[in-house]
Amino acid sequence: MEVVTLLVVLWVVAPLWALISALNTQRRIGELEREVRQLRLRRVRPEAGASLPDPAEPAPTTKETLSGSAGELTQIPAEFAVGSHGPFEPAVTTETVKKADFGLGRWLTGFFSGPSAFARLGAVVLLVGVGLGLKYAADLGLLGLPLRLWGVVALGGALLVVGWRLRKVRAAYAAALMGTAFGVWYLTVFASLHFYGLLSTGRAFALLALLGGLLAALATVQRSQVLAVLGTLGGFLAPLLTSASSASGQANGVQLFAYYALLNVLALPLGVRFGWEGLPLLGFAATFGLATVWGVLAYRPDSFAVAEPFLLLFFLMYALLPLARARFGETGPRGTAVALLFATPVVFLSLQAALTGGAREVMALSCLGLSAFYTLLATRTASWRIAHAAIAVGALTLGLPFALGVNLTPAAWALEGAALAWYAARKRSRAWSIWSAVVQAGAGLAVLWKALGEGPPIALEGWGLAALLAMAALLSARFVQSVWPPLARAFAGAGMVWWLLGGAYGLFLEHAGRPALALLVVYVALSAVVLCVLGARWSLSALRAAAYLPLPVAIVAQLAWLGTSPLTDLGWLSVPVAVAAQLTVLEWRALAFPARFRVLFHALAFWFVLLILAWSAASAWGGVWALCAWGAVPALGVALIVTEGRRVPWIRRDFAAFVRLGVLPVLGSILVWFWLASGHSGRMGSWPVPLLNPLDLALAGSWYVAWRVLTRSGTRRTPGLSEALEPVWSAQRPHTFAWLLSVSALLGLSTAALRGVHFLGGVPWEAAALLGSGAVQTTLSLVWTGLGMGAMWWARRAGQSDERSARGVWLVGAVLLVAVTVKLFLVDLAGSSALARIVSFVSVGALLLLIGYLSPAPPRDRTSR
């Protein structure tokens, strides 16, 4: 023990002192050089309007003694004296020095630097040496007990006398000597009580009180922190140097803690009265450090009755320091006072947990009692109110897991976080807002840990906890909206996430498969409406994001079950609820959604409804009816929108944008379906009627709807439709859609003729069989000739109003007739039967003659006409 202590002093304290001393010396030299340069500049160029002191009057010389952290008595030269700088910089008073912010690092730097640094270091080393010498002499029985003790007392007296005589000449050095003297005497009294048993407890404590009073008086008279620190340090080192900490038993514990309590009672008033930060720091470190050592080496469960009262006593001593500081004019937390303020409850709870073995009930009462105590302090100290309140909240937060257990702790933390957010709004404090976020984040982590680490709870518990966290977060967002809007948005987002995750978690625990997805869609849709209403009422724009959830969630849920009908297994409930919720939140005026998003989601709702209806019809009917449903249902939807859609307010408001964004993509899908479905035979056992079977009717109807919407001639009967499509037409070549629909019509009529031959003539629906059939070739020739004749006849009638378009149509009809003629000679003449060839040539020839008479080629312009 002796060797270890000596090595610590020599190899740790000494190098640390040397380094700090060097750095402090360099800093002080730099400060002096800067101050000298400033004085020279001011004397050469005084500030405008500044009055110089009268040269006839000598500058006053200040000889005050500044006893700072190092406690040195420094004679200040006249040119650097307080008040000698005139109006150019404020005077530094002793009150300012007293209230300066002495941090721990600054205090250590000052203590182990300066001209008397070696004296202070020597005092510490001497105290250690005396303690080790007493222990060594006692172990070997050297010099006799009276001689040893009186010798140490005499050494202390000599140090005190020499220090007293040097107090005016070398104040700092004298303070180190006198402090060492008191340390030696503290060591002697404690050794006589605890180690040798020469003094009774009453006499020993009376001597200690006498020494403490004398030390306080000398330190007060000389305003010397060094004297007080060194003397008190000797008292605190006495148990360690005499190995008293290793003694066990109740009596030893009582004497040890009572001794330290007396030292604190003597030292703390000096530190508070004069603002000496070294004394509270020394007392805190020594008291709780020795308590920890004693607990590790000597504590037994039956010693709880001894340790607990002293732990409470020491805690109260340092917890009540802010009250004492406030009585002496301290304005608020600063320097080491803040460190002691927050370290005291932390150390107390740590030692309390060690003494009680972490018992839940005891720790819960300790935390709750600590919270109540600091709440009371917060009401008594205005300058320390925020710090005390923060500790009270922290103690309550730590106590909730002990009091409520794992299951209820997240709920309690969530409610506490909401209460803190309310308090932050009342005080308009961002600090309390951050603390609220931290507490609620802890609640969320606790819920996740419980769900992932201990297995899934029952559905109501899982949803209930998540819902409670969500409501706490949403209320917190409402409270801190005016204090810190970014944090309010984060609270709102967290509330939405917890609400939706909790619902999904509970639903998938209770249900499975398609019903779970359908119920999830309903839950999300209704939640979106509620969240958007809250966002509008509470002016929380972040909650508006919930409006974009119903339809995407419904679409994903439907795509997850492609193999079944979308309206089965509660799909009949989820689809209309999702669509209604989506349209409701989009049309909520208070939310003021951007127009582009509103039109996009209206179009998405339109697509989704058409998809569900077509999918349901196809699943219900099957066969050719299913194929027809995929074209007929979208065509009917488009027809309904373009003819009756303007009666709906939200379509009428954005009709042009909705047609371009919502209707045109559907028409594109209809044309794709038209080309694909045209290749189907359309055979139905109960309805083999050409041109009147469901497939031909669906193809004709879908083509007609496309022509009515996409062409200029078709939109003339629909108000507002041509204006909506004008930008689309302007971006294309003229009559692009008309030519596309003409080619589609040719394809549709040709395949309809093939299906008629297939039904009536019994030709198999195969490419080779159809191409090799004379009846098919004759039918195609007649159909194409009829189409060409119809085009040319229409061009003849429309030529007076639109000559350019009419000539283009007439040329198309002519090209079609030429193609028929070429087909007659290359295909029909070579591959058809005699009767089929005769019918084809006679029929086509007669039609050509008729066309030549009724529809000659229109003129290129009016001159040629």
UniProtKB/TrEMBL annotation:
<keyword id="KW-0472">Membrane</keyword>
<feature type="transmembrane region" description="Helical">
    <location>
        <begin position="6"/>
        <end position="24"/>
    </location>
</feature>
<feature type="transmembrane region" description="Helical">
    <location>
        <begin position="570"/>
        <end position="588"/>
    </location>
</feature>
<feature type="transmembrane region" description="Helical">
    <location>
        <begin position="515"/>
        <end position="534"/>
    </location>
</feature>
<keyword id="KW-0812">Transmembrane</keyword>
<feature type="transmembrane region" description="Helical">
    <location>
        <begin position="737"/>
        <end position="754"/>
    </location>
</feature>
<feature type="transmembrane region" description="Helical">
    <location>
        <begin position="487"/>
        <end position="509"/>
    </location>
</feature>
<feature type="transmembrane region" description="Helical">
    <location>
        <begin position="432"/>
        <end position="452"/>
    </location>
</feature>
<feature type="transmembrane region" description="Helical">
    <location>
        <begin position="687"/>
        <end position="707"/>
    </location>
</feature>
<feature type="transmembrane region" description="Helical">
    <location>
        <begin position="458"/>
        <end position="480"/>
    </location>
</feature>
<feature type="transmembrane region" description="Helical">
    <location>
        <begin position="305"/>
        <end position="324"/>
    </location>
</feature>
<protein>
    <submittedName>
        <fullName>Putative membrane protein</fullName>
    </submittedName>
</protein>
<feature type="transmembrane region" description="Helical">
    <location>
        <begin position="226"/>
        <end position="247"/>
    </location>
</feature>
<feature type="transmembrane region" description="Helical">
    <location>
        <begin position="149"/>
        <end position="166"/>
    </location>
</feature>
<feature type="transmembrane region" description="Helical">
    <location>
        <begin position="624"/>
        <end position="643"/>
    </location>
</feature>
<feature type="transmembrane region" description="Helical">
    <location>
        <begin position="336"/>
        <end position="356"/>
    </location>
</feature>
<feature type="transmembrane region" description="Helical">
    <location>
        <begin position="600"/>
        <end position="618"/>
    </location>
</feature>
<feature type="transmembrane region" description="Helical">
    <location>
        <begin position="173"/>
        <end position="196"/>
    </location>
</feature>
<dbReference type="InterPro" id="IPR019286">
    <property type="entry name" value="DUF2339_TM"/>
</dbReference>
<feature type="transmembrane region" description="Helical">
    <location>
        <begin position="807"/>
        <end position="826"/>
    </location>
</feature>
<feature type="region of interest" description="Disordered">
    <location>
        <begin position="47"/>
        <end position="68"/>
    </location>
</feature>
<feature type="transmembrane region" description="Helical">
    <location>
        <begin position="279"/>
        <end position="299"/>
    </location>
</feature>
<feature type="transmembrane region" description="Helical">
    <location>
        <begin position="362"/>
        <end position="379"/>
    </location>
</feature>
<feature type="transmembrane region" description="Helical">
    <location>
        <begin position="655"/>
        <end position="675"/>
    </location>
</feature>
<keyword id="KW-1133">Transmembrane helix</keyword>
<feature type="transmembrane region" description="Helical">
    <location>
        <begin position="774"/>
        <end position="795"/>
    </location>
</feature>
<feature type="transmembrane region" description="Helical">
    <location>
        <begin position="202"/>
        <end position="219"/>
    </location>
</feature>
<dbReference type="Pfam" id="PF10101">
    <property type="entry name" value="DUF2339"/>
</dbReference>
<feature type="transmembrane region" description="Helical">
    <location>
        <begin position="386"/>
        <end position="404"/>
    </location>
</feature>
<feature type="transmembrane region" description="Helical">
    <location>
        <begin position="838"/>
        <end position="855"/>
    </location>
</feature>
<feature type="transmembrane region" description="Helical">
    <location>
        <begin position="546"/>
        <end position="564"/>
    </location>
</feature>
<feature type="transmembrane region" description="Helical">
    <location>
        <begin position="117"/>
        <end position="137"/>
    </location>
</feature>
